[in-house]
Amino acid sequence: MTVKHRLQENRQLFITAVLCLILVSCVSLERSIEEDYIGPRPLTSVPTQPEEAITAPETPGEVPTIKPEGPITVTVQNAILIALEHNRALKVEKMNPAIRRTGEDEERAAFDPILTGGYSRDREKSEIPSRPNREGLTNENDAILAVSEYLPTGTDVSVELSTEQSWSNLYTDDLHASRVGLSITQALLRGAGVNYNLASLRQARMDTRSSQFELRGFAETLVARVEETYWDYALTQRQIQIFLESLKLAEQQKSETEEMIKIGALAESELTAAEAEIALRREGLINARSTLEKTRLQILRLLNPPDTNLWQRDIVLLHEPRIPEVALDDVESHVGVALRMRSDLNQARLQVHRGDLEIVKTKNGLLPKMDFFINLGKTGYADSFNNSVSDIDGDSYDTLVGVSLEFPLVNREARAKYRKSLLSRDQAEEAVKNLVQLVQVDVRSAYIEVTRAKEQISATAATRALQEEKARIEAEKFRVGKSTTLLVAQAQRDLLSSRITEIETIINYLKALIELYRLEGSLLERRGIMAPGREPVRQLKDEH
Fold this sequence. Notes:
alpha+beta, six-stranded antiparallel sheet, Outer membrane efflux proteins (OEP), two-stranded antiparallel sheet, 10 strands, 58% helix
């Protein structure tokens, strides 16, 4: 085998190795995208079975159509779907994952191929010592085209095509030189390895995923607010109804008092107590109507239905507050759900994993910079461009191989960044442990509140029944002259308070369940709502 054939064979093997290196780097880059990235998904609903005090719409998953005029008639589930579609604050939050994802493109751009090119023309005029009366005039044209790419392995690859044309009045023939070159620089220490070079890209993907958890937490809070405001509106409507009934009863009591005063069975001073009770009922009615109007505005703000006459629309609720048939699991089960599903806890875990990548980056910075480089080229020479290109297949070639080394003597900056990354990672891990405790306190406290609120329902119902009987007995005693208007008014006032407390207890129980599900991170799933961030982040060791 001749030397020429041996060189050609070695050159082909080298080029094949370079192409394999590029392919492996690209595959590693794509794999990291597939494993690390979770794409943003729009908030949509999925069919669910009716749960608690909620009835699913006739067509699950579709946003209810709102008539342009008249009152807005909604169920709890309808209100949730409308809010997820039209709430302005949620629209703002939905943009964050897309904005964060642009950071991924910025980091991935470091591995994009770069095309460069250039052209120059040089003209030189000089005196010729051997010919005093003659000047030398030399012209030169240079053109270059190159494609370079930095690979995740820490390899910088560049392919270059160049041509040079020169001519002079000192000789008659033009000189053309065309060259094909391959340049490879491989980091051996600092900057080497896929883990280091992809660390920033993986951090950017974690930032995107973190924004998805943030969006999920916001959506969960919004759903909770919609439900709670819905039940607050229902509570206020019921309070107004109770105040109207109590006012009617107080006015009836005043009429009976006036009749008994006319027949001389009561003194005129008894009328004052009856009139005071009517005034008190009207005061409560005024306050309840004001609260209803403010709550209506809050519902409209949360739902934000598409309407030019938004603030004048009335709200009609299709669900009445009732006790849901819910059997809670033990508190440890709810805590376990929270430790997996809480958005803020998953965000905190991501910060720890992000800190691990920062350690990889800063630890690599402690190494000296040592690069291996090799430049291969083939050049053809001729009196024309076409012939110079054809001559590239000739025996001429150039090769440059070497190693470069660079190392700061103190390297103080790199050491400081590495220490900072270690401390920041430890801080993030402690923050997770602290948040785990807070989550457990939140869920356990909410669980206790649900239990208390449920027990209060039967107690307030019994109190209301006794107050009804007490008011009835006091009214009968008044009719036979054995009681006073003041005592009757007091009994009716106690009955009014017990009726309001009874409906408040039911609403408080519903809201306590909502808060428990929100704090454990399961509210969206229980309401049939899909949102980004459904998959929890891997828990840390010794997290508890």
